[in-house]
Amino acid sequence: MTMTLAELLAPVTPERFFTEYHDRKPLHVQGGAAKFAHVLSWRQINRLLDMTHIWSGHSLQLVMDGTPVPPEQYCGRATSRDNAQVLQPEAPKVRDWVKRGASIVMNDVDSLTPGLAAVSAALEGAGLGKAQANVYISWQSHKAFPAHFDTHEVWAVQVEGEKTWNLWDGRAEWPIAHPVFRAMPQAQHEQQKGRLREKVLMRPGDLLYLPRGWYHDALAEAPASVHIAYGVHAPLGMDLLNILVERALYDPEFRKPLPRQDGSAAAKFALTSRAGALGQRLAELCREPKVMEVLERFVADYRFHRGGNDLLAARDIAPASEKPGVETDAPAFRVLAPGAKPVRRGAEWVLKTAGGVLPLAGAEVEAAGWLLARPDVAEPELRAAHPGVDAAALLARLRDAGLLVAA
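Structure tokens predicted for Cupin-like domain-containing protein:
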């Protein structure tokens, strides 16, 4: 599964984005419900959460109305895959907190499904930096976080429900992941956020871009809301300093001792002169072709390297999906018209769609009503629930009518 920056931003072009918005101001792109249907669904969220051993009190966090829930209150002590003692989330405890309205934060998910990884790859493929993703699941009228800024760009992808974002005028001046910026008291954030710039209502298929340091907060408007926040970390000027430190190791001028200080004017002058000479030498090192070659390579390759495994291909063995008669996991379809119901027209039953009406026959009426009341469905599930229906044919008709999309 692949995705490009152009597909992510559409209908806004990458050229317009980089000219008008990148590192300048927020951008809200409205999409259709099908745009990000392949990225994440409730079905996939539950599957991920059921991978118990990949989660800990750090990777899976709960937040109740702006206050983090201590891991001890929703986790139990367990042994990790690395044979270390960890606090591991327990489903009954998580459910209890969700019933109270606690938001769920699933950290570092950018490689856990093909859809999540596709967005990461699109951002990194455009040279924007390293893309790390968290899933935020929140419930109506419960705010997870107060007004704040992030120390990276934010690309928010809405996949379920609705959420209103408050975007403020305030912007921190290119903050980084350092306690100087991360340990600010909330009162200081409230003072620096400024006036309300705009309210953005995010619906499934929408994208919101926020430059690094932009103040914001958000609140779910639907019974449930799910968005993935991709934090994009660009290479910084400070990374050049790290490269120069490595280069300076081979320069004797930086290995020499600094002038001894005895409190005299001459000693102070000698130290000032030496510091100026070293600064000039750093400027010369910045112009060295080898240093620039290392810097260019560092910036060009500044991304996470995910996936790439194909063990059967390495042994030249055909996977099961290519062998006749072997059934693999069936794909799921996301319902784009939740709550849609068959209606009677005279002696016939139909489904109303954006493009008209879709006739239904016999057992299809009950089957269509059943699956449209779900967030998603797979063909085996439809066959099991309604064996008298040609499941594949009904799913294809509903998909062609725009009521379903491959998840």
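The chain has 15 helices and 19 strands.
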